[in-house]
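Notes continue from the previous slide.

Worked example: a multi-chain complex. Inputs as given:
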Amino acid sequence: MQDSELIKNVLQGDQRYYTLIVEKYQSNVFRVAIGFVHNKEDAEEITQDVFVKAYTVLSGFNHQSALATWLYRIAVNASLNFLRSRKRKSIWVNISHAFYLAANEKNAEASMHLQEEWESIRRAVDGLPEKQRTAFILSKYEDLPQRQIAAIMNTTEGSVEQFILRAKRNLQKKLKIP
Amino acid sequence: MANPDMDNKLDAFIKIERAIEPNPFISTRVMGKITGLALAKNKKQSAYKIALVAVSILIAIIVGMAIGDTYQMNENNGIAVMINDNQIENLGFYKTISNE
């Protein structure tokens, strides 16, 4: 069923169709959120908030963009608002990284070194200016084309290309080993 | 990139985060929240209705009391009618058989 039909049924009062929308796009929204917050629980909370928010304003969706684009836009704004309002956790914990370390590193010293490198990568990504970071995350975490990123960020494709280029250059500078 | 090794690590970092799966029950939680919002909205509307009915009753009572207060007793002194019970028809008159 197409998104427009799903939305039509939801607006007619059948909430079951909204479950289909959530199941269809939850992974996409989650990946965007995790690109910003790097934490599974926080990303899940943001994902839930995005879909609850989308439901409350669904009647205002004017089909000028695709539903996915609209949801991505809400996800980016929700993630940025989350970061602004919440204190960043002092200790960055990510279970998947711990498993990766345990599976792939043979000794504790190498694991610690890798953990530090990843912490520096995380800090470098989080330290990007907001627009560069948004474009970078949408490009790298969701493999979105520049045209769609431009629609999400309400800007031009040329600007998106510049944001991504500058983000890569900034990351190169920050992650350079002296 | 200046440091290809770091570039690979950046890609590995992103690859790992991309591979993290969300909770499969997100849709259930979302629908639960939406239902909760709808219930809260209905509850609020019911409370407004109850308050409206209560206020309407109160207004009706106040208006009734105000209308009642406008009634004035007739203060004109009419002619006092003295009724002498003895002048009322004496039913005992009809008790004697001869007067039936």
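Summary box: The CA atoms of residues 45 and 51 of chain B lie 10 Å apart. The two ends of chain B are 138 Å apart (CA to CA).
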